[in-house]
């Protein structure tokens, strides 16, 4: 038998697996690495987070990633970056393992989300002749496996799409395994480039996973545009100096995405600066001070999260656990509490997973389930060294 296949077969039978989860989101901050020990699988799963770190992208590489998320990107650049992203991620993985004094052969699996460059659920292209969902993540799994010598599970979203679903968010199954609590309605809110949540009902009923709209993607873009040298609004300090503009907020919330049925998914392909500028033109707010613009976008995120949450939360107490980069934005956090006063807010840290690490941990869990779990929860392509 191929020795890599023999090792893979052995991994399925082990009582635990050491999995390194890799996550790079639409905020393009950098690469999150979560080294996890996964004991068992399915409802018996237990996860121990051994190490976590975020390795920022350089400004020049971050700009290249922004450039390839434009409709005019060249096929040559797209092709080159598919390998380049993987190579950079491998270099980061090997450097992190060396820093952590962990040898590559002590890691059973890499779990790589990849870098999303275009997400295209069919509702974003009405009238298109191809009516299926589509999504594209770069960072080739074979490069990761070959250059790290670690079996890699990558490209998780494609099987979700192949089965007729939208390819995002993927957190629901892992969230349920890790965080469901009988007797407590839990809403696990992730504030990355796009805001999304997993609703775990107290009675153990069906899990709901959905995007709600923009989170950091527009806030970061406006910060970069008006405050040179800043890539994001640290702690929401700039937005805190502004005042939300009611007419602009109403125009932004008039987008049909916000009233579309749940669950739904979206991305920066829909919520970009052109969307914001169109709303500004319609409301004669093109001269709005930048801090007011940021304050309005904070309210947009909070209002759209509340709009979606109220459509699934039952009456009675509910607990919202926040993760992602937006969990550090206190102005946004306060806006969420103001827009959804019936819920209690905390960061996911209170459940034992650092807010910044949650998504990387979730992909480690998904890789563990792909290798050792049941077929219905198998996502991702297995790439051998």
From TrEMBL:
The keyword Transferase applies. Keywords: Kinase, Transferase. The keyword Kinase applies. Transmembrane segments: none annotated. Pfam families: AnmK. One of its GO terms (molecular function) is kinase activity. Gene3D superfamilies: 3.30.420.40. This is Anhydro-N-acetylmuramic acid kinase. It comes from Hymenobacter aranciens.
């Amino acid at each position: 038998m191929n020795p890599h296949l023999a090792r893979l077969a052995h991994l399925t039978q082990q009582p635990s697996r050491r999995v390194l989860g890799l996550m790079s989101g639409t905020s393009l901050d950098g690469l999150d690495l979560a080294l996890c020990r996964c004991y068992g699988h399915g409802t018996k799963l237990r996860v121990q987070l051994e190490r976590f770190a975020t390795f920022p992208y350089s400004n020049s590489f971050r700009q290249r990633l922004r450039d390839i998320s434009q409709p005019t990107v060249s096929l040559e650049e797209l092709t080159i970056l598919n390998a380049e992203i993987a190579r950079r991620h491998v270099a980061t993985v090997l450097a992190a393992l060396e820093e952590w004094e962990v040898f590559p052969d002590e890691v059973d699996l890499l779990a790589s989300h990849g870098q999303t460059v275009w997400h295209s659920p069919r509702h974003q292209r009405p009238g298109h002749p191809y009516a299926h969902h589509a999504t594209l993540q770069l960072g080739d799994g074979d490069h990761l496996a070959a250059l790290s010598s670690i079996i890699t599970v990558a490209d998780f979203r494609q099987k979700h799409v192949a089965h007729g679903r939208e390819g995002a968010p993927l957190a629901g199954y892992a969230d349920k395994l890790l965080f469901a609590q009988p007797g407590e309605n839990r809403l696990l809110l992730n504030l990355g480039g796009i805001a999304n949540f997993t609703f775990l009902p107290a009675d153990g009923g069906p899990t709901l996973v959905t995007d709600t709209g923009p989170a950091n993607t527009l806030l970061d873009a406006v910060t970069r545009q008006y405050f040179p040298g800043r890539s994001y609004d640290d702690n929401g300090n700039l937005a805190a100096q502004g005042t939300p503009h009611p007419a602009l907020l109403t125009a932004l919330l008039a987008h049909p995405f916000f009233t579309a049925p749940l669950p739904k998914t979206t991305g920066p392909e829909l919520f970009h600066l052109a969307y914001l500028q169109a709303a500004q033109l319609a409301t004669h707010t093109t001269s709005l001070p930048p801090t007011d613009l940021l304050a309005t976008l904070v309210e947009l995120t909070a209002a759209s999260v509340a709009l979606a949450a109220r459509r699934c939360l039952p009456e009675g107490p509910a607990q919202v656990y926040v993760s992602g980069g937006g969990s550090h934005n206190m102005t946004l956090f306060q806006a969420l509490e103001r827009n959804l006063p019936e819920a209690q807010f905390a960061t996911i840290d209170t459940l034992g997973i650092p807010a910044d690490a949650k998504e990387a941990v979730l992909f480690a869990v998904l890789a563990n389930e792909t290798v050792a779990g049941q077929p219905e929860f198998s996502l991702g392509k297995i790439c051998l060294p």
